[in-house]
Design goal:
The chain is of the alpha/beta class. It folds into 2 domains: 121-377, Type I PLP-dependent aspartate aminotransferase-like (Major domain) (Aspartate Aminotransferase, domain 2), CATH 3.40.640.10; 388-497, Aspartate Aminotransferase, domain 1 (Alpha-Beta Complex), CATH 3.90.1150.170. Helix content is 40%, strand content 12%. The strands form 2 sheets. The chain has a 7-stranded mixed sheet, sandwiched between helices. A hairpin with a 2-residue loop joins strand 10 (460-464) and strand 11 (467-473). Helix 5 runs antiparallel to helix 14. The longest helix is centred in the C-terminal third of the chain and has 22 residues, at 387-408. It is globular and about 65 Å long.
Length: 505
């Protein structure tokens, strides 16, 4: 008996909406139509067209999913999307956007995103990712080498700094529990000793340290904030005192987090001294380099990284200072054996009997199961631009921050909070007609809100000693000092328009 040949996928296909060989021309058509809208977005002169409450409410209604039972044309859908989202999106490449840690992105990384999305590789197991596995491993090897980690180190791509910091605290907690108390938290769960574990970080460190301590069941109180010096860096004498005080209270110091580039000030904690204290106290040393980690490529900042080889783990965000699309981050461990604290072997996915060093499963190092092929963005950028080009970009944004600082330092209308070490400048407008702090806070919040809502400029704000300050976060190498001084001028003019409230008695 001769069986008929199976019907081909092409013959079975009911339409061309799924990506395969028969929809290749349609894919090209969709891409070109989308590119037209993107080009219009790039041609916009303002970072944001501005907003008002009526428009915001209208956009909320436009986002609703009505009449979706039947197909619609891509032209109609893209037109709706353009009106709802693209025309209202924030242009991070615009020189008047100086608010948060959003960078313009490299062209090779965009190409990589298109390839990774189209092919849709999932990198958790070898049988899904094949040679994509090697690309991620090679990018991890490259950044480990930049941090002077030896071949026993390893890492994995993550969704961002918060997840990377979570992995660090988990490893620090579980490793200390196992090494000092023989407690296997992954297998047996909580114990009374862990309630005494304490983690130390600068009072200017990222909020994810406290957040992750809470998610790990340790609570906010497990994190001991250490005061900073006048350069917003961790005070190492205060760190030592805090550790001794914790021990006197009957608690157990298990880890210290040093920040290379604080979110608000871009300050670098004194890594070498902190590292020595951590090793003397037998504590896990984690480096949060989410912001400043890529500045290891810049000659001007290499001295800040002296001592990084003492770290047990490192966080680095490529979507901040390697000019990559979000999300693109990595977590590194100096000793790859420590990934055992997050590993799991599922029979259907990565059974332990199938372990093969020639065909590795990256899921053994990851908190996530399904993961995008984010490493391709970094790999293609490095292959195309080279590290010297990226270092030039980093040097340029650092110099811009220094120039802004020096231009407003002696301006009586401004008060500068710090000397920039990275690419952030924190300052505030001082209303000459007001003497009490609430008015200064009010005028700075007014300036920030007015410039954003008008679409003129996007600046951030933060608090220092309870008072409101403005913040420039400079991650655009194409920006210029003249443009930034024009934003300073807009801040002054907007501040002068503000009518202060009656002085407090």
């Amino acid at each position: 008996m001769i069986l008929n040949e199976a019907t081909s996928l092409k013959e079975l296909s009911l339409n061309n909406y799924l990506f395969n060989e028969e929809s290749a021309k349609l894919y090209e058509e969709y891409t070109l139509k989308t590119l037209n809208h993107i080009q219009q977005f790039l041609s916009q002169r303002k970072f944001y067209k501005g907003d008002n409450l009526e428009e915001i409410q209208a956009h909320r209604n436009k986002a609703k999913l009505y009449d979706i039972e039947l197909p619609n044309s891509i032209d109609n859908a893209l037109t709706e999307l353009n009106e709802l989202y693209i025309q209202n999106a924030i242009s991070f490449h615009n020189p008047n956007y100086v608010a948060h840690l959003n960078c313009p992105i490299t062209l090779p990384s965009i190409v990589a995103e298109m390839i990774a999305t189209t092919i849709n590789t999932a990198v958790e197991t070898w049988d899904q990712s094949t040679s994509a596995t090697f690309i991620e491993q090679e990018v991890i090897r490259w950044i480990c080498n930049e941090y002077s980690f030896d071949k026993n180190s390893d890492g994995v791509f993550t969704s961002g700094g918060t997840q990377s910091n979570f992995m660090a605290l988990l490893m620090a907690r579980d490793h200390y529990a196992y090494e000092h108390f023989g407690i296997n938290i992954k297998q047996n769960g909580w114990s009374d000793e862990i309630s005494k574990f304490r983690i130390f970080c600068s009072e200017k460190s990222h909020f994810s340290i406290k957040k992750n301590a809470a998610l790990l069941g340790m609570g906010y109180d497990a994190v001991i904030p250490v005061k900073v010096d006048d350069k917003m860096r961790m005070d190492t004498e205060a760190l030592y005192v805090a550790i001794e005080k914790t021990k006197q209270e009957g608690n157990i110091p298990v880890a210290v987090v040093a920040t290379l580039g604080t979110t608000d000030y871009g300050s670098f904690d004194p890594l070498e001294t902190i590292g020595k204290i951590a090793k003397e106290q037998d504590m896990w040393l984690h480096i949060d380099g989410a912001y400043g980690g890529c500045f290891v490529l810049a000659e001007s900042h290499k001295h800040y990284f002296e001592g990084i080889e003492m770290a047990d783990s490192v966080t680095v965000d490529f979507h901040k200072t390697l000019f990559q699309p979000v999300s693109c981050s990595a977590f590194l461990a100096k000793n790859k054996q420590h990934f055992q604290y997050v590993s799991y072997y599922a029979d259907y996915l990565n059974p332990i009997e199938d372990k093969d060093p020639e065909r590795p499963n990256l899921i053994e190092k990851s908190m996530q199961t399904t993961r995008r092929f984010d490493a391709l963005k970094v790999w293609l950028t490095l292959k195309t631009l080279g590290t010297k080009t990226i270092a030039t970009y980093l040097e340029e944004v650092h110099q811009l921050a220094k120039q802004v600082y020096h231009h407003i330092l002696n301006n009586p209308n401004f008060e500068v909070a710090h000397v920039p070490e990275l690419s952030t400048v924190v300052f505030r407008y001082k209303n000459s007609e007001a003497q009490h702090e609430p008015t200064h806070d009010d005028v700075n919040l007014y300036i920030k809100s007015f410039l954003y809502r008008s679409g003129k400029a996007s600046i951030a704000s933060t608090k220092l000693n309870g008072n409101i300050y403005l913040k420039f976060t400079l991650l655009n190498p194409k920006n210029t000092i003249n443009n930034l001084l024009n934003i300073i001028k807009m801040i002054e003019e907007t501040g002068k328009q503000y009518q202060p409230k009656t002085e407090a008695l």
